[in-house]
Design goal:
Blueprint lengths: L13 H23 L5 H49 L1 H17 L2 H15 L5 H14 L6 H30 L1 H11 L1
Length: 193
């Protein structure tokens, strides 16, 4: 382990481990090729070994940089979450103004536009044809946190999460919208059928 003696052992995810192993296999093949070619002079073989040493060092540096970027992405996500949480809890006046503006905008829409908007949003995000979108979104979250994509976990989340959201939206429609605007619920059901 001559190339990484000063660093502690780094845990690799499946994608990183696969990339590093493929690169090391390429370097090993180059080294074996070098050993098979014995007719060259010793200086040529020494230059080839030095080149392989430099390539290995560059490979380790690239791996360390990618590991650094994963940690950077994760810490950036935590900082953004902390800032948004702080703004949510401490910026009540600004949120109150924004909330009143959104409510005024929504209450000025006709019931048909509201029902159409609810149908459009629920079909885009929760509809049965949106599985590829969920797979892309969950995969990008996995990549953002530096995790290896696990197809079983992704398919499990894709098959359950939209169903849970659909149930919550239907409960919201029947519980909240029946009190606020019964005509909106009637229009929603007629448009849904």
């Amino acid at each position: 382990n001559w190339w990484n003696t000063r660093q502690s052992e780094i845990l690799l995810n499946d994608i990183q481990e696969k990339n590093v192993l493929e690169r090391f296999m390429e370097l090993e093949e180059l080294f074996l090729l070098d050993e098979m070619i014995k007719e060259y002079s010793e200086t040529h073989m020494q230059r080839l070994r030095i080149g392989m040493h430099k390539e290995t060092i560059q490979l380790v540096q690239r791996h360390n940089e990618s590991h650094f970027h994963i940690i950077l992405h994760f810490s950036t996500n935590l900082i953004c979450f902390a800032i948004l949480s702080g703004y949510f809890f401490l910026g009540n006046e600004e949120l109150f103004i924004l909330n009143s503006w959104i409510q005024e905008f929504l209450y000025n829409l006709s019931d048909t536009i509201k029902a159409f908007s609810i149908l459009l949003v629920t079909d885009l995000w929760i509809g049965f044809h949106s599985t590829h979108g969920w797979e892309l979104m969950i995969g990008s979250i996995y990549n953002d946190f530096g995790l290896a994509q696990n197809d079983q976990i992704i398919s499990g989340l894709v098959s359950t999460f939209p169903v849970i959201l659909d149930t919550i939206v239907k409960y919201w429609i029947f519980h909240f919208l029946n009190r606020v605007s019964p005509s909106l619920v009637v229009i929603y059901h007629s448009m849904n059928e």
